[in-house]
Amino acid sequence: MSRVTLSRYLIEQTRSHNTPADLRFLIEVVARACKEISHAVSKGALGGVLGSMGTENVQGEVQKKLDVMSNEILLEANEWGGHLAGMASEEMDNAYQIPGKYPKGAYLLVFDPLDGSSNIDVNVSVGTIFSVLRCPEQHLSQNDALNEQAFLQPGTKQVAAGYAIYGPQTMLMLTLGDGVKGFTLDRELGSFVLTHDNIRVPETTAEFAINMSNQRHWEAPVKRYVSEMLAGKEGVLGKNYNMRWIASMVADVHRILTRGGIFMYPWDAREPEKPGKLRLMYEANPMSFIIEQAGGASTDGRQRILDIQPNSLHQRVPVFLGSKEEVARVTGYHQE
Ligand SMILES: O=P(O)(O)OC[C@H]1O[C@](O)(COP(=O)(O)O)[C@@H](O)[C@@H]1O
Ligand SMILES: [Mg+2]
Ligand SMILES: [Mg+2]
């Protein structure tokens, strides 16, 4: 069997689907950075990479050493590639402009450098989530400093999105807007190899993922939906549901891409002023693009996530994504 590496797949895309060459190079650079992060994560205590930095990010969350390292790896790898005008990250207060360069690259890269990092010290799968947007024309001129405004585009404008998952295997899941492909890192070859073609999320499911400890703080539609699932065969939904919660969005979404399910992180009343826990730009948008491209659905309970017009870089959002039928059900409950 001839192996299709990520590079070969991207070259084919350039030839047959007119994927721009600079987008192809950009994805290659991100994939290379993910290999480096995978290597750092896999070293664990041997590499002295576990534990916290003793700092907080802009959102007041404790930064792990690997959060900061992963962020630096992505910045350094992409800074001089020539394909970007700027980057934004969950771990940086402000948008990052590629220094001293004209003309600027055509794209913007947005990422959660290490998702699920609270799981690092207990050796559970974590990952890198990324999203690629076109830099709006007016921000490409020589004199215009790149600011947050350039990034505030709805998820429908993404030209590519993906995540790398660092688990028993390191995988890269990618969409260029034409389905979802899965690549597994072959460590001997040093390449991501296409192993999962045409990934589809089943439309129905009997598996849900939510942090149940927040149940008492949820809104009524979410309480209703989860209690109906818990009622099982004897309840109104007429079937037994299974529950999983890894507390790493990449790992929970990866399971859903593999065998279906619904993932929920709703608004809750612990911090009522926060719309949700997950970040629109770094987590919800790229994952929603991937899930939709695999035949699933994604909403904030009221509207399609990809249609939301962002108003700030670090904006948060409630998330309901996965198998179409279940996402439609819980979204419908919010509308009743
Ligand atoms: O600990 P909780 O509240 O269940 O939250 C888990 C969620 O938080 C996250 O870890 C947030 O991501 P970060 O690790 O990038 O901050 C998601 O991956 C996950 O779904
Ligand atoms: Mg995250
Ligand atoms: Mg993170």
UniProtKB/TrEMBL annotation:
Q: What is its EC number?
A: 3.1.3.11
- Fructose-1-6-bisphosphatase class 1 C-terminal domain ranges (all copies): 201-334
Residues where Mg(2+) 1 binds: 90, 112, 114
Q: Where in the cell is it found?
A: Cytoplasm
Q: Kind of enzyme, top EC level?
A: hydrolase
Instruction: Outline the extent of the Fructose-1-6-bisphosphatase class I N-terminal domain.
Output: 5-196
Keyword vocabulary terms for this entry:
Carbohydrate metabolism, Cytoplasm, Hydrolase, Magnesium, Metal-binding
Domain of life the protein comes from: Bacteria
Q: List the InterPro entries.
A: FBPase_C_dom, FBPase_class-1, FBPase_N, FBPtase
What note does UniProt attach to the cofactor annotation? Binds 2 magnesium ions per subunit.
| Similarity comment: family membership | Belongs to the FBPase class 1 family.
Q: Which NCBIfam families match?
A: PRK09293.1-1 (NF006778), PRK09293.1-3 (NF006779), PRK09293.1-4 (NF006780)
Subunit structure comment from the entry: Homotetramer.
Q: Protein name, please? A: Fructose-1,6-bisphosphatase class 1
Protein species of origin: Metapseudomonas resinovorans (Pseudomonas resinovorans)
